[in-house]
Predict the 3D structure of the following.
Amino acid sequence: MRNPLAAATLLIAAASLCPAVKAAPQRPPADADSAADFYDAFERSEALPQISPAPGRYADTVVVSLRASIYDSAATLRYTIDGSQPSALSTAYADPFSVSRDAVVRARAFHGGQPSSRVVSAAFKVQDVTPPSITSVLAFPGSTKLYAVFSEAVDARTASDPASYNVTGLTVESAAPGADGRSVALAVSPAPQGGIDYALTAGGVKDTSPNANAAGASKGASFRAASPAATVSPDSGDRVNVMGNVKTVDSPHGRAYSFNAGSDAVELGNRPELNPTKAVTITAWIRPADWSSNRRILQKGNNDDQYRLTASFGKLLWEISGIGEATAPLPSVNAWHHVAAAYDGKAMTLYIDGEIAGEAAVSGPIPGGPDNLFVGTKYEGAAPSDRFIGEITDVRVYDQALLPEHILALAR
C-alpha cells in the first residue's frame, strides 16, 4: 500500500527542483481598443435624429417623418427645408410633412433652446407626376360633416372649392382644408346614413407640386358611415356573456346593466375587429355609484397589455399599452354621463359629456391579444376593487377614431 505522506513529500521536492514558470502578460494588439475605451466611445456616441424615407429620387410627393434617437427620446426635433440650418426658432416636428419639390431636409435635436445633436440631412429629388388620391373618408350616421384624407398635400384653393367634389347621393356644400395640408372637412346634405355605400371623388383637387397634378374625376374612395365594431347593452344585438349577478334596469338611454362588484361582468369575447392596430374609439353611457379603487368601465388585455378605460388613482384613465395614456377628472357619481376615448395614431383623447376632458400626443400601433373584452371588470377573476359599481349601457367600440362632432352627437 502506497504511503500518501511519502508521495506528497516527493511532489514537493520535485517542485522545488523546477524553476517557476511565469505566464507572459497578455498584451492587446496595438490597434485594439480597451473595454474602457469602448465604454467611453459608447457614452460619447451622438444621439442623432432619423429621417425617413431614404434620400433619393421620387416620382411622387414624399411624406417625410422624423424620429428622435432612442438615447434622446425626450428631445424636440426641429427642421428646415429652405436650405437654412435648424435653430431653436425652426419648425418643431409634430407630424409627417410633404415634400413636393427638390429639397434638403435638415433636422437637429434640441432641449429647450440648446442643440443636443449635430444636424442630419437628407436630399430629395422630386419630380411629382402622380395626382393626389383619397386614402380614407370618415363619416358618421346623421352627421353632415365628412372628413377626407389625401395621399399628399393638396392645393388649398382647389381643395376648398365644393365643386371639386362629388359624393353619390349627397351634395357637397362647403370644403375646408385642414392645417396638415392633406385633410379636408366637407359639409354635405343630407347626412349620410348607416349601412349605405357611398363614393367620394375629387376630380378638381390638385397637389402642391410644380406640375399641379389633378386628381381624376373617375377615381375616388368608397366609404360607409362609421358603425361600431361592437355594441354592448341589454338592447343591443351583440352576443355577450353576462356573469355574476348583473341586473338590467331602465335608464334614460334604454335598458342598462347594473353592476355591484362581486363577480359581476359582461364579456364580449375576442374577434379581429376588437384588435384594431391604427385607431380606436370607445364610447359608453355610465352612472357610477362610487369611484373608489380602480373601477373598470371597459378593458381588453388581462394584464393591462392592450387598452382600458377605467378609474385610476382618482382620475379617469384612457390607456393603450406601449403607446401612452390620457387622464381627466372623474365624472360625478349617481348621475348619467357619456364618456368616450379615442386614438387616431397621433393623439389619445378623453371626452366627458361630449366635451374634450383630457388628451395626450402619442403614437404607435395598438397591441393586439387573445384576451376577451370585458365591460365592468378587468377580467373574469378580477378582485372587487377592479370592478365597476353602478350602471352602464350603450357601450360602443369603433375601429376608427371618431371626430369631436361625432362624439358630441353620441352624447346628446
Q: What stands out?
A: Confidence is low (pLDDT under 50) at residues 1-44.
